[in-house]
Amino acid sequence: MDTIFSSASNSLKSAIKIIRVSGKNCIKIPEIFSFKPTSPRLLSLRKILDDKGSLIDTALVVYIPGPSTVTGEDIFEFHFHGSTIIEKKIYSTLLKNKGFRIAMNGEFTRRAFLNGILDLTQAEGLNDLINAETETQFEASTAQYNGSLSTKIQIWRTEIISLSSKLEAVIDFSDEELPEDIEIELKRNIMRLIRQKEDALKYSYYGERLKTGFVVTLIGKPNVGKSSLINYLSEKNVSIVTNEAGTTRDIIEVMLDFKGYPVILNDTAGIRPPSTEVENIGIKKAIDRANASDIILVLSDNKDFSFREIKSNVKKILVHTKCDLLSYKKKGVLEISVKNEKSIDNLIEKIINHLESISPKNNVFLTRERHVQGVKNSLKCLKNILKIDLNSFPELASEELRVAAKEIGSITNVIDAEEILDDIFSNFCIGK
Fold first, then answer.
1. Alpha-carbon radius of gyration of the chain
2. Could you give the count of Cα atoms lying within 13 Å of 76 in the half-sphere of its Cβ?
3. Candidate ranges 1-5, 221-225, 280-284; pick with highest mean pLDDT
4. Which residues contact 47 (CB under 8 A, 6 or more apart)?
5. How confident is the model at residue 13 (pLDDT cuts 50, 70, 90)?
6. What one-character DSSP code corresponds to residue 177?
7. Which of 38, 44, 203, 369 has the fewest beta carbons closer than 10 A?
8. SS3 of 197, please?
9. CA-to-CA dists, residue 102 to 2, 166, 209, 232, 424, angstroms
10. What's the rounded Cα separation, in Å, for the pair 267 and 234?
11. Among residues 308, 353, 300, which one has the least CA distance to residue 330?
12. Gap between the Cα atoms of 333 and 303, Å rounded
């Protein structure tokens, strides 16, 4: 296997840059750059020279022998002055030596997985941590990186295997009927696993939303203050605000951080009988986006909050705008004024309260579609067992348990599925 290397810092000028190398050829690096070898795990100052003996830089270097490293292989790092030309010279010198090449996206983490340092959910948690921008994203990704989901998956798999072992023991004495107490215990444990997995699936969308953002859409008639509100919340003039009705035709998205929750706020076309085909398309887009949202902010400045096109099962917050001009005090309706900055914080608090109310009780939730499919496939097998006469067909139940364990285990360790591994690790940045 080639020895790989890449910058572990950004590609711009900086005070310090780091190049990380992983693989069996790390031991050759002192010879390649003509400096005295360092003691393992000891950061040392060395003059590094190119293949012609010219000085590249005076840098801190460290050699970390495997397998107790981030990849499970030997690691070597250069910590040097943050010039791009120094970085290029180190790259060039390494590439002149057989067995060295630049790492692909996520290849360091992929090697960590292949060498048993991380499982797949931990690797995905690491990628989410690198991309985290809000407090809740940080908390969820840190928990997954540290094995919260892995632990849950392993518990499920261990329990399924335990049930399978007990059933196999009974099959070995197939001329006897399954003892009633064993059958009751088996079905009770299967029902418990089914409930746990159904709960996990119920909250699976939450994990995905934490990565991409909870969708909050503003709906209302033209000129009720949707664009003014989104401009105020984003502190940018992202939407056009005029006295002319219908100035917003397409959906305008703004990514915001509401006390740690990532929120995609959508400004949409005003809902009214359309006067042009373009406006009709904009209104249809607005309704479709609202119906696919986590929260709809229904805005009105005339006490009318009725929109037949909006689904009733989406969380709605009724917002009476421009209360500096006309007050409307009614239970369930929040009065705000962007002009006077009145009750905007209360509106944000309402959004946060709802997001908190729909969050799982812990940080263990499914964050990828492949997690969801693995749980669904395993759940289907467990439900199939409840339909089987265990005395007549224990072998069928045993096979369902075997497949259930395999499906749930695939979440943390994919075997013989190169395209799945490629998809997972290609989403990492180079150098990770």
1. 29
2. 22
3. 1-5
4. 35, 55, 57, 58
5. confident
6. P
7. 369
8. helix
9. 10, 50, 34, 46, 19
10. 11
11. 300
12. 9
List the Cα angle 266/271/275 in 5-degree steps.
120
**C-alpha–C-alpha distance, residues 61 and 45, integer Å:** 6
Q: Which residues pair with 252 in a beta bridge?
A: 267
Token match 């409930």: residue? 195
Nearest Cα residue to 209 out of 315, 326, 58: 315
Q: Over the stretch 195-214, which tens digit does the pLDDT of each residue have?
A: 999 999 988 888 889 888 99
44: three-class secondary structure by DSSP = strand
Average confidence (pLDDT) over 405-416? 81
DSSP 25: G
* DSSP assignments along 286-300, one per residue: HHHHHHT-SEEEEEE
Count of residues in the chain: 432
Percent of the chain with pLDDT over 90: 57
| 357 SS3 class | helix
Question: Quick one: pLDDT at residue 419?
Answer: 53
Give, in degrees to the nearest 5, the angle at Cα 171 between 168 and 175.
165
Give the three-class secondary structure for 68.
coil
